[in-house]
Design brief:
Layout: H1 26-41, E1 46-48, E2 58-61, E3 73-83, E4 87-94, E5 97-107, E6 109-115, E7 121-127, H2 128-141, H3 152-170
Antiparallel strand pairs: 1-2, 2-3, 3-6, 4-5, 6-7
Protein name: Peptide deformylase
Function: Removes the formyl group from the N-terminal Met of newly synthesized proteins. Requires at least a dipeptide for an efficient rate of reaction. N-terminal L-methionine is a prerequisite for activity but the enzyme has broad specificity at other positions.
EC number: 3.5.1.88
Length: about 170
């Protein structure tokens, strides 16, 4: 497994809509394994392929707490089938927007259809942190960032900060 470099805001790749995965094969499962390794190293609880520069509809999640056995989950071509009217608020962060956190309101429960790492069609009903994480990562596949769910003023401040930092590194 290989730890991949993360794409960081303001990289325009983060705004790209990811293409559907055409087939589940050894190359794709290797990519999923690399993504998990990258996510664990960061450390994070979710990662979309676009965050390592691969615009494919693939994401990985592991909500195991520190000290617990890892519980990696792979979602290929995930799509939200339904979402509840009830809402929940979580403080979200993002590996592509390091050290920035904000409260985001999203549907409290969702139902997601996807392919697992074996290419089998699955459906999951999610609530709590899993629902939030799935929505956050599926947003990535659609070129949407969690900062798009906060006020315009806060979002502009974050983008400005990361744009300035990126220019500083380019010098």
């Amino acid at each position: 497994m290989t730890i991949k470099p993360l794409i960081i805001l303001p990289d325009p790749l983060l705004r790209q809509v990811s293409a559907p995965v055409e087939r589940v094969d050894a190359e794709l499962t290797q990519l999923a394994d690399d993504m998990l390794e990258t996510m664990y190293d960061a450390p994070g609880i979710g990662l979309a392929a676009i965050q390592i520069g691969v615009p494919r509809r693939l994401l990985v999640i592991d909500l195991a707490k520190e000290g617990e056995e890892k519980q990696p989950q792979v979602f290929i071509n995930p799509q939200i089938l339904s979402s509840s009217d009830a809402r929940s608020v979580y403080e979200e962060g993002c590996l592509s927007i390091p050290d920035y956190y904000a409260e985001v309101e999203r549907p409290a429960e969702i139902e997601v259809q996807y392919l697992d790492r074996d290419g089998k069609d699955k459906t999951v009903k999610a609530d709590g942190l899993l629902a939030t994480c799935l929505q956050h990562e599926i947003d990535h596949l659609n070129g949407v960032l969690f900062i798009d769910h906060i006020s315009r003023l806060k979002r502009e401040m974050v983008v400005k900060k990361f744009t300035k930092a990126a220019k500083g590194k380019a010098v």
